[in-house]
Structures are given as C-alpha cells and as structure tokens.
Amino acid sequence: MAVVYFILRHLTNLTGWDLVADVILHYVMPVLFVIDWLFFVPKESLKLRDACLWLAFPIVHLIWTFIHGAYSGFYPYPFLNSEELGIARVLLNEAGLLVIFLILELVLVTGGRLIDKAGSVNLPD
Prior knowledge:
Radius of gyration: 17 Å
Helix content: over 70%
Strand content: under 5%
Number of domains: 2
Oligomer: single chain
Largest sheet: none
Distance between the termini: 31 Å
C-alpha cells in the first residue's frame, strides 16, 4: 500500500473500472488483511519460519512476471519492466521489495506473539 501510495500513484491516471480495481487491490485489501490478521488469525500458531514461507508467493509472482513480460511486453508495475530498466536494476528493485515483505512478515509474527501473550484481540460481543 505504501509503495503504491507514495511512489506509483503519480505514474498513472486511472479511471473507471481500472481505478476501482486499483483502489480495491492497493487500499481496501491491505486494510482488510490487517483486520483479518488482528481478529481471526490464531496468534499462537505463528512461527518465525512462516515468514520465510510467506515469501513464496511474491517470488512465484516475480518469476511469472518475468516470463510473461518477456513474451508479452506487459509488466504490471514500472519497477518490474526489465526491458526498460534492465534485469540487474529490476532484480535490485525486487530484492528491496522482498526485504520489505520479510520485515513486514516478521513484524506480523512478532506482533502476533506479543498480542497472544497479552491476551487475544477479540471482536466485541
């Protein structure tokens, strides 16, 4: 959400259904994710190794994006466009994002453990 808000939102001028999809994907879903994590994820089950496993999806998405982009020329974000930026720059961009994802995941695991010790966050009755 922060990457889209601070960096990418100025690069396009979306309208119509593209704008709706962008808002849902980049603004609504992260908020719903946090709500889901706070109230519905069993915090006692969170383990540090889970954070590494959670990186699988972004890595698979990156591989798919490179393969798909090589054939179609379409890259969903400008920082992934290896045709314009070169593969070295895109890999550096992705390494940075993966580090950010890993830090966020470690915060979720650690925060979940702290919440679990302090008493679960529950929905009001």
